[in-house]
Amino acid sequence: MRAAIARLTAVDALAARRVAVLVPSRGAADELRRSLENIALAEGVGALLLPDLVTRADFYRTLHAALPLAPALLSEPEREVLLRRAAREAAAAGTEPPFRLRPGLIVQMLDFYDELRRREQTLDDFDRLATGRLAASADIDRGAERLLRQTEFLCAAFRGFEVLCEATGAVDEHGLRSLLLSADAPPQRAYEHVIVTVADQAADQRGLYAIDFDLLTRLGGVARIDIVATENRLASGFHERIHNLLPGIEEER
Fold first, then answer.
1. Starting at the edge strand that comes first in sequence, how are the strands of the sheet with 52-54 ordered?
2. How many CB atoms lie under 10 A from the CB of residue 148?
3. In what helix (H) or strand (E) does residue 243 lie, and over which residues does it extend?
4. pTM (2 decimals)?
5. Contact present, 154 and 91 (Cβ < 8 Å)
6. How do residues 22-58 score in pLDDT, each as one tens digit?
7. Which of 21, 93, 153, 207 fits as disulfide partner to 97, beta carbons 3.0 to 4.6 Å?
8. Per-residue DSSP letter, 20
9. Rounded to an integer, what distance in angstroms lies between the CA atom of residue 29 and that of residue 48?
10. Alpha-carbon dihedral sign for residues 230, 235, 241, 247
11. Would you give the DSSP letter of residue 193?
């Protein structure tokens, strides 16, 4: 796998193309960097131009930094503060949660919000689907009634959170993605070639979401995308899913 990545990046280095290699963690990036250096040394390469070895979060930060006149990027602590405020305002307005708003719970709520957005679900979708299923039995089922109140609170808090985020003039990951894909967005100048060494979320919690693959295929300036995976990873179901995510992708075994 490392040899395949080295082969793919060698041409980019000669052509001075901007290339990113998406890895699952910073530790994996360090390990891959050492491997590429060792491969280059064994092959007698004098000067080695390494690609950017980035995690999913690093990739988004780099895209943001390369975007001309981009609004500020909200940090995770800032987003937590905004969601905590939105949750308190929702409770004060009468949509009280069926639980105590502990600090750790705010982090879990933010994770849930991100999961919804990364799986291409809007708050209206979540509200409609969850409320529709629970409302019918809420009068006779205490569990359903509690879940219904929880859903109503989450929707109110998340809507308030989005309003507060917009009021800051900054963007989070989801706002940045919309900005990058907007009709009037300039072509991004971060990368021309992206090599993905991680699977999707169905195979690995550190993998990419379907919405990330969609972003890669629609980013202006990206001329080539390569997916590098082992046979075992492909056999786990990733082979079929990657063809659904990237229709028409060519295979080289």
1. 52-54, 19-22, 193-196, 224-227
2. 21
3. helix 239-245
4. 0.86
5. no
6. 999 999 999 999 998 888 888 776 556 788 999 999 9
7. 153
8. E
9. 16
10. positive
11. E
